[in-house]
Amino acid sequence: MVPFVDIDGVEDGEQGKGRPPHDHNRDYIDEPIYNSTSSLMKYASEKKPEIFIDLHCPWKWGESDDISSQRNNNVFFMKRMPPIGEEVEKLGQCLQRAILNESDPDKVIYYGKYDMSIGEEWFKPETPCSTKFFEKIGARISVTCEYTYFGTGNMIITQSNSRGFGRNLSIALNEYIEKCVVNSC
Q: From first to last of its 185 residues, what are the pLDDT tens digits of the chain?
């Protein structure tokens, strides 16, 4: 678990997307400029993790009725190419089950319909990023989970339900590992 790769940006309250000299998530290149990225890449290359999830925030909000705009107000996964994309879908199903069992009426919901596959919109396969790096070193799952800033009129994001989402994601990961990694689903 690495809490923040861009700790300076977090401390400065910066959103981080496209920040000069370049976004930390674009630093997964042969010669990274940020020490934190370089260190993570070295460590991960040695350890070869099975699962990598980059918890990120999407664009700040969406305002229109089209799905790409609505996507930013919901939790969604950014799925890489097969077979990783299919593994992410299995994890998504586990997450939906965990959320379904959550009793909090203000829970954060993951629908799946807002997920983005590589090649859609701005998610280009040639763009350097953390998930591309972890895919390259052999992770079974390498995915970005975009966690909305605000939510929707029916699902307002709070500290409490954000913690609940983290708990549900942990439950989903546990189920996924048990069913799909240990027992080869």
A: 787 788 777 787 776 667 777 888 899 999 999 999 999 999 999 999 999 999 988 776 666 667 777 888 999 999 999 999 999 999 999 999 999 999 999 999 999 999 999 998 888 999 999 999 999 999 999 999 999 988 888 899 999 999 999 999 999 999 999 998 888 77
- Contacts (Cβ under 8 Å, ≥6 apart) of 125: 81, 118, 119, 132
Domain extent listing, the chain: 48-182
The span from the CA of 21 to the CA of 108, in Å, is 34
Spell out the residues 6+ positions from residue 94 whose beta carbon is closer than 8 angstroms to its own: 171, 172, 173, 175, 176, 179
pTM, entire model: 0.90
